[in-house]
Amino acid sequence: MFDGLLMYLVGGAVIGILARFFKPGADPVGWIMTIVLGALGALAGGYIAGMLGVGNRILVWVIAIVAAIVLLFLWEAIRGKRPRAA
């Protein structure tokens, strides 16, 4: 179980870093949130790929990265609405 969780976090980190690389603009997201958003992107991308019947691993990774990019945009939109502390 620990091996699976560790690999999921490593995969999430890779997907999160790739999403931040491909997403335009400055990203004020820390490393922990990058891993979290990458892991959530991997989960969402895997789910979407499964629903579409995609079996190609590279295409599944592309879908996961796109899902993580969407999550980055959503995270910035949510964070941007909060008032900043002085």
Explained architecture:
Keywords: Cell membrane, Membrane, Transmembrane, Transmembrane helix. Belongs to the UPF0410 family. The chain is mainly α and 86 residues long. It has one domain. Helices cover 78% and strands 0% of the residues. α1 packs across α2, α1 packs across α3 and α2 crosses α3. The longest helix is centred in the C-terminal third of the chain and has 24 residues. 24% of the residues are buried.
What count of structural domains?
1
What characteristic shape results from the CA principal axes? globular
**What's the number of extended β-strand segments?**
0
Low-pLDDT windows of residues: none
Strand content: under 5%
Write the layout of secondary structure elements.
Layout: H1 2-22, H2 31-52, H3 57-80
Helix pairs in contact: 1-2, 1-3, 2-3
Which key features would you list for this structure?
single chain, 86 residues, mainly alpha
Short summary of the structure?
With 86 residues, the chain is mostly helical. It has helices at residues 2-22, 31-52, 57-80. Helix 1 packs across helix 2 (31-52), helix 1 (2-22) crosses helix 3 and helix 2 packs across helix 3 (57-80).
